[in-house]
Amino acid sequence: MRTSNLSNRLMDTIVIVILTLLTLLCLMPIVNVVAMSFASLNEIVSGNFILWPKQLDWKAYHYIFNTGVFFSSLRNTVWITVVGTIVNLAVTSLLAYVCSRQRFSGRRMLLFMVLFSMLFSGGMIPTYLVVKATGLMNTLWALVIPTAVSAFNLLVMREFFESIHESIIESATIDGCNDLGIFFKIVLPLSIPSLATFTLFYAVSNWNQYFSAILYLNKSSLWPLQILLRQVVLIGQSDIYSQLSAGEALPMPVSTQMATVVLASAPIVVLYPFLQRYFVKGLSLGAVKG
C-alpha cells in the first residue's frame, strides 16, 4: 500500500511537471509578442533581452494611439462583433427552437436545408455575386448577414432545446402562454449556459473577420482590425499609420507590429474568462439529450 501511494505521488509529480513545461511552451510565443511590443530600439537591435525587456518602452503604443487608423478599425470590429453576435444568436436560437418542436410540420424540411448548407456551399464567386446584387458591398452588413447562421451551432442548440422536458412546455401552454412567450420566458432562461457558449463562438468568429472583409470591403475606412493587422505586417507601418509630428522618433516597425497584435487580441482574451464557466457546461448540455 505504501509503495502504491509513493508510486501514485511520483506519477502525479511527473504529470504536473510535464503539463507545466507544456504550458510554458504555449505561453512563450505570447510573452515574446508582448515583450517585443514594449522593447526599445537598442534592445531589439542588440537582442540583449531574452524573455522580457529591461526597460519598458511605450513608444509603439503611443504611436498607434496618436493615429485615427487604429481606432477606426477598432470601431468597425466592435460593431461587427456586437451586431453580428446579436444577429447570430437571435436567428440561430429562433430556428433551433422551431426545429426542436415536434408539432412543427416543416421541421424536417428545414433541418434538411440546414444540413445541406452545412455539407455543400455555393462557393466564393456565387456568394460574392449575391452580396453584390443585394447592395451589401462596401458595407459592414456584408460581414454580418451572409454568416447570420452557423449550421453546426444551430444543430447543437437544437439538441439542447430538445433536452428541455416537454412537460414544462405543456404546462406553459395550459397556462395560456403562446410560442413566443414560451421561447422568451422559459426556453431562453433555461438556456443561459448554451447561449453563453455560442456567444463566445460567434464573438470570436466575428472579431476575427478577415477573408470576407477582403472580398467585400474596398474602402480602408471600413477595414476591421484583422485587415489593418495584415497591412501593418505585410506593408509596414509607414504606409498605414499617419506620421507623427516632425522631430519625433518613430518606433521600430517590429514593435508597432507586435503592439498591433496585442491590441487586436486583448479584448477577446479578456472576454473569455467571463464565459469560461459556461463553456464546457454549455457544450455538454447541448450534446446530451435529457
Automatic annotation (TrEMBL):
Tagged with keyword Nucleus: no
Localization per Swiss-Prot or TrEMBL: Cell membrane
GO cellular component terms attached to this protein's record: plasma membrane
Alphabetical list of PROSITE patterns matching this protein: ABC_TM1
Superkingdom field: Bacteria
Pfam families: BPD_transp_1
Single GO BP term: transmembrane transport
Keyword hit for Iron: no
Ranges that cross the membrane: 78-98, 110-129, 141-161, 182-204, 254-275
Family named by the database record: Belongs to the binding-protein-dependent transport system permease family.
Predominant location category: membrane
Keywords: Cell membrane, Membrane, Transmembrane, Transmembrane helix, Transport
Location of the ABC transmembrane type-1 domain: 74-275
Topology class, membrane: Multi-pass membrane protein
Name of protein: ABC transporter permease
